[in-house]
Q: What sequence folds into this?
């Protein structure tokens, strides 16, 4: 039995198979409409994350399965003090697969150690959010037709942004990848990512402060939100959040073949006027998130559709 | 006036030599020697030609009784002499253990180990060269002492 804890749980070959399955699901949804009939997914969300929860639930429903679960710790037995290991032992008796979101880092790993059903890490604190990375990879592959030989711009909160760190880990496994890191000094990519990952693997990268300087060279621009909860005081947040706003003027500097991704939700880092640009791919990315989670559920449940 | 203190030989067990002076109680704690029902001698600030002064711990117990791998994590310069029939039969080479269980605790307040009861604190050696251990659950870094 397999679980998904980290985006690196899948080898490059396994990932290729998974993303190809997701593409087939996109092309032939009817073929998969009853693939999970009779199967149940439990969504165990110890903190609210409407987008991620609904994406998993939509994926299971699209496959003809059923869903159950809770959307905050208050409405679960965790409020009574039940441990994660006891909860998952119980849920294993009810469901065939589960997706867990937990504010504590490593909670899904505790769950998978005691689970009799596959566990999907749907986000554990600032640690991992592997299904977002799978979504990003499927989006890039579908839009560009490849995951290698590309210049990826990562913009915004590169210090705390776990989606950025996970994406870097996932992309460095492909040849010809280079990064342009676009952030204010205060939110630069941490040393452990630059030295232990990029430098160690000799991945070319440069750091720039102005978004405009990077735009002409990019194949993909990955925007991130400067999250209020990452800051200790309001003043710092207000000072930094408007540093990197993507608007129509900046988009004019980018190649016609560049695409803009964003894990969403956005606040104001992408102006609404950019939404109508054909290169704005962040809402398509949401759709790809459902396809890749459908492929993931089938893979973990070992269901094959001919 | 020079004071000397002699602690007798042990017939079977371990002599942990070349412990950095003052660290013996820390090792006593890490090895959970307080829980052992056997003879343990702690010698502090013994003279050492190599180190100036050093600590020594003598533990009289069956030699299959203890897992000393953790010493590699605490200080791999410690000399471990294995004693049988009052003779040194082996000098154990210390290495960094691949996995450490319930020796150090994860200090990340966001880690599941901070709230989940009965959970082992497990650290995995992720970079032998830099001696970096990471929490199995949250991957927070812990550096060994040396």
A:
């Amino acid at each position: 039995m397999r679980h998904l804890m980290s985006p690196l749980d899948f080898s490059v070959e396994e990932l290729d198979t998974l993303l190809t399955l997701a593409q087939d699901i996109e092309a032939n949804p009817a073929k998969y409409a009853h693939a999970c009939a009779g199967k149940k997914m439990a969504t165990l969300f110890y903190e609210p994350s409407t987008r991620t929860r609904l994406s998993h639930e939509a994926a299971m429903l699209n496959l003809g399965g059923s869903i159950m679960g809770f959307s905050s710790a208050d409405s679960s037995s965790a409020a009574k003090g039940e441990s994660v290991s006891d909860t998952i032992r119980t849920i294993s008796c009810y469901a065939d697969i589960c997706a867990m979101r937990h504010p504590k880092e490593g909670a899904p790993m505790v769950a998978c150690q005691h689970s009799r059903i596959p566990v999907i890490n749907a986000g554990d604190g600032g640690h991992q959010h592997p299904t977002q990375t799978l979504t990003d990879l499927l989006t890039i592959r579908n839009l560009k037709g490849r995951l290698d030989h590309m210049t990826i711009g990562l913009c915004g909160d590169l210090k705390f942004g776990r989606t950025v760190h996970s994406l870097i880990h996932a992309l460095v496994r492909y040849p010809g990848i280079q990064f342009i890191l676009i952030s204010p000094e205060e939110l630069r990519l941490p040393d452990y990512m630059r030295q232990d990952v990029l430098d160690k693997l000799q991945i070319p990268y440069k750091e720039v402060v102005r978004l405009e300087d990077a735009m002409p060279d990019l194949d993909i621009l990955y925007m991130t939100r400067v999250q209020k909860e990452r800051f200790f005081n309001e003043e710092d947040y207000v000072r930094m959040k408007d540093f990197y706003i993507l608007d129509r003027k900046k988009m004019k500097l980018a190649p016609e073949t560049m695409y803009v991704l964003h894990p969403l939700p956005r606040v104001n880092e992408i102006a609404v006027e950019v939404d109508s640009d054909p290169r704005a791919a962040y809402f398509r990315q949401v759709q790809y998130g459902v396809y890749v989670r459908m492929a993931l559920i089938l893979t973990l449940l070992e269901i094959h559709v001919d | 006036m020079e004071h000397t203190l002699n602690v007798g030989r042990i017939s079977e067990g371990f002599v942990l030599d070349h412990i950095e002076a003052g660290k013996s109680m820390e090792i006593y704690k890490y090895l959970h020697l307080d829980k052992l029902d056997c003879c343990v001698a702690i010698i502090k600030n013994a003279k050492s030609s190599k180190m100036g002064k050093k600590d020594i711990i003598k533990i009289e117990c069956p030699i299959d009784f203890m897992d000393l791998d953790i010493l590699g994590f605490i200080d791999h310069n410690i000399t471990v002499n294995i004693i049988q029939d009052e003779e040194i039969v082996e000098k154990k080479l210390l290495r960094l253990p691949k996995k450490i269980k319930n020796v150090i605790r994860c200090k990340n307040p966001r880690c599941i180990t901070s709230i989940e009861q009965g959970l082992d604190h497990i650290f995995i050696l992720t970079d032998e060269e830099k001696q970096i251990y990471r929490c199995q659950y949250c991957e927070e870094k812990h550096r060994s002492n040396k």
Remarks:
- Chain A touches chain B at residues 83-85, 102-107, 109-110, 124-127, 192, 196 (CB under 8 Å).
- Chain A is about 35% helix and 15% strand.
